[in-house]
Specification:
The complex is a heterodimer. In chain A, 37% of the residues lie in helices and 28% in strands. By secondary structure, chain A is α/β, with parallel strands linked by helices. Chain A has a single domain, classed as 3-Layer(aba) Sandwich (Rossmann fold). Chain A starts with a strand and ends with a helix. Chain B has one domain. Chain B has ten helices and one strand. The chains are: A alpha/beta, B mainly alpha. Chains A and B meet through helix 1, strand 4 and helix 3 of A and strand 1, helix 2 and helix 10 of B. Strand 4 of chain A pairs antiparallel with strand 1 of chain B, so a sheet runs across the interface.
């Protein structure tokens, strides 16, 4: 393992402030000097980690352990409150499916809009739109407004757009990956194509055994900290053992 | 190879400009989205945005045409340009503030955040351009002299747009932190409109009050927008200088303020 580093986090922390009451009005803020009351939630606590180019890193942990926050930091959606983040390569994400979609626009129009949010030009999207339509395989719905879609169809469309972007680093939240077996097989095939091209992967999933089978390393996040990181079968075994004792 | 280092970031105001450049097609797609969403499911489409200024035009013309006839003959031609530019200002700033405060796309995808304000502004500009057609129709109907002074309109519109963008960014920043900013803005707009010579000629005001019109920056833009349309007059060079300075000041303030808070927005949404 001597390939250069694609993603590097050095003691990265993310803290959310969670408002306790319904909010402070401008008047209260000015007249009484009242501040909204918050409790602080540490979503990531001094996480240090690096991912090499071409590597596939799996991320496991319970709900609320900070897995999605970690992906959002790598995607630069959430700037870290402290610590250092370095990225070498272009990033595409399948973290949030609805970002940039509008219910009144058709699937086709949404493909262009979502592509633009991801930094693609109109010409680039024009080259891809047919491939996206056939990958999503939602038939006539492609030219119907998004509000008429089922949840599964929205996922297929979002996944088809994200999978069409030529990124060097792909961040995927698999907790979202619904869809029937056929579509999942198609997604897996697309991912292995990307992998063969040397794309770096970070995948969040609840399916520990699947991650163990495909990943080079596994990261176990627990309450925002790195509980274990390394050999897939060792980390998976630790994680599964801990699950059974609690 | 794209490289990013969170410790070596450019100042936020500069970084935002760079990201707008890499997301060039986003503005176009957002404007096209805004126009489609607004007009797609309505039989009258664009005509809807003309309803309010046209009704105002008719009402004001009925009420004030005789009152102001000696100062502003052909009153409809006097009031219509002002109404349209005011509408552009009021609608663009309100929509930008409300949309950006309510948006949750901040925490869903990485993109240059000012794009939402800029695309709202561009959408408003498209509407203003379309409204120029009925405007010119009215001017011809009441027999105003249209001529070479019209060539100053594009410059005035560009400067007014920069001013509008600055105000939108300031409002959006405020609205993201305080829920009462946009309702307050909605209440402020009517008195603001009457503190600019939109519906009445400035010369009817008592001498002591006239200088106060200048305190409302929209007075500048409305007078410069109206002069070529109403009387084929070219605004003074000092007017353009003042419009430029005001626009630059407002846009710089709005840009610095909004981009300063841009990192925090994903945490708040």
């Amino acid at each position: 393992m001597t390939s250069p580093i694609a993603l590097e986090l050095d003691s990265v922390s993310v803290r959310y402030r969670i408002a306790l009451d319904s909010g402070v009005t401008l008047k209260e803020s000015i007249v009484r000097g009242r501040r909204r009351e918050y409790v602080e939630h540490v979503a990531l606590d001094a996480v240090t980690l690096s991912v090499r180019q071409g590597e596939m890193l799996g991320v496991i942990g319970r709900n609320g352990a900070g897995k999605t926050t970690l992906l959002n930091v790598m995607a630069r959606v959430l700037p870290p409150r402290s610590g250092r983040l370095r990225i070498r390569g272009s990033v595409s994400t399948i973290i949030d499916l609805l970002g940039g979609f509008h219910p009144e626009l058709t699937g086709r129009e949404n493909v262009y809009l979502r592509g633009a949010f991801l930094g693609m030009s109109r010409a680039q999207m024009q080259q891809r739109v047919d491939a996206i339509a056939s990958f999503a395989a939602i038939g006539q719905f492609f030219d119907a407004p998004l509000r008429t879609y089922s949840a599964g169809m929205i996922v297929r469309l979002a996944f088809a757009v994200a999978a069409s972007v030529d990124a060097e680093i792909l961040l995927i939240d698999e907790a979202l990956a619904v869809g029937d077996a056929e579509f999942q097989a198609k997604c897996a095939a697309r991912m292995s194509e990307h992998r063969a091209r040397g794309v770096t992967f970070v995948i969040v999933s609840h399916d520990v055994l699947r991650l163990q089978a495909v990943c080079d390393r596994i990261l176990w996040l627990d309450q925002g900290t790195v509980r274990a990181l390394g050999n897939p079968s060792e980390v998976a075994a630790l994680y599964l053992a801990a699950q059974q004792t609690t | 190879m794209i490289e990013y280092d969170s410790l070596l970031r450019a100042p936020r105001a500069i970084e935002e400009l760079r990201e707008l450049r890499t997301h060039r097609s986003l503005l176009r797609e957002l404007v096209s989205r805004n126009l489609k969403v607004r007009y797609k499911r309505s039989a009258f489409g664009f005509l809807w945005t003309m309803v309010s200024p046209t009704l105002m035009l008719v009402a004001l013309s009925l009420v004030f045409s005789r009152t102001f006839t000696s100062i502003t003959p052909a009153y409809p031609a006097y009031v219509f340009p002002g109404l349209l530019l005011w509408n552009f200002f009021a609608q663009s700033t309100t929509i930008a503030g409300e949309e950006m405060a309510a948006a949750d796309v901040w925490k869903r995808v990485r993109f240059p955040k000012t794009a939402l304000a800029i695309s709202t502004l561009l959408t408003g500009l498209v509407n203003l351009m379309l409204a120029l057609l009925p405007l010119i129709l009215v001017l011809l109907l009441v027999g105003r002299p249209l001529g070479a002074a019209l060539f100053t309109l594009p410059l005035t519109i560009v400067l007014a747009s920069l001013f509008v963008l600055g105000v939108s960014l300031i409002l959006a920043t405020g609205a993201l932190y305080f829920p009462d900013v946009m309702p307050a803005w909605g209440m402020l707009l009517p008195p603001l409109m009457f503190s600019a010579p939109v519906v009445y000629p400035a010369s009817i005001l008592p001498r002591w009050l006239a200088p106060w019109l200048r305190a409302n920056p929209m007075t500048l833009y409305i007078e410069a927008f109206r002069a070529p349309l109403y009387s084929n007059a070219i605004p003074a060079a000092t007017t353009f200088a003042a419009m430029f300075a005001t626009a630059l000041l407002m846009l710089t303030a709005g840009w610095l303020l909004f981009t300063h808070f841009a990192d925090d927005i994903a945490y708040r949404a």
